[in-house]
User: What shape does this take?
Amino acid sequence: MKLHSLLFGLLTLALTPAAFAQQPIVIKFSHVVATETPKGKAAEFFKKRAEELTGGKVKVEVYPNSQLYKDKEEMEALQLGAVQMLAPSLAKFGPLGVKEFEVFDLPFIFDSYAELHKVTQGPIGAGILKKLEPKGIVGLAFWDNGFKSFSANTPIKVPADLKGKKMRIQSSKVLEEQMRSLGALPQVMAFSEVYQALQTGVVDGTENPHSNMYTQKMHEVQKHMAVTDHGYLGYAVIVNKKFWDGLPADVRGQLTTAMKESTDYANKIAKEENDGALEGIRKSGKTQVYVPTAEERLAFKKALVPVHKKMESRMGADLIEAIYKETAFDPARL
Ligand code: LMR
Assistant: This one.
């Protein structure tokens, strides 16, 4: 009898509204890269810190490698509230209608992480993130990946080596123009499809930071790679605005702290991760890694910097000028 009443008591307790209220708030965080990349690791770090700092009130479920959604679908899923958090690459915001993000795709606009951080971690970056709010999205942070290399099945030393090649790009008009400026044929394709497209010859080559190439094994189906560092690839961490604004204030504060720590972590490991991946690619012996000479790199720069002017009406000449000012870049001084 005693046992019965105890069980009954436990059962009613479990069904009270208070018990329901203690269900954790779930954040589904979907992304398209491997866990062993700067973004993959930073997402795991955020999960850990968010769960710790909220004392378990929040549970973060990370879905890597396009497990849940591919590039285009994940943006839609966030806006619909099917997932709460994403970190798409900056090249993927154009289709959302926030063209300012495309400024990060301009070839050779940043020479180093230090230059880049003046923009992403300063007022210009904050202003760009703010542009997302009318789309029902809150931009929380910029996370680094790194600078891109080109790959193909034939050697790449100078711009003419990419002429006529079908090159996979992310969905960005600036990247499209970049490839056209080299005489290449850009092909927009979801990240999850790139390995197979390279393997079967649907495309001839691509561009990405080494961490992405290595973890997707792209180097196993590409014979040549050139470390051109011709452009940057990084991320904006974004949340569904309705979800974010609806969180209890204390939880939102704890998550903001967890995000700040994760951003420091992401931006600290990104370079090491990419250097390690390049080492791994070299060691694999499957692709020949070429580092262009200063002169060859300058040829790429001369071929690609005119893309800034051509694309300025998309993201605004003022924005480009503001970045030049931060980084002391002068396109006339090449
Ligand atoms: C790509 O599509 O190449 C990248 O944006 C993937 C990523 O998220 O780093």
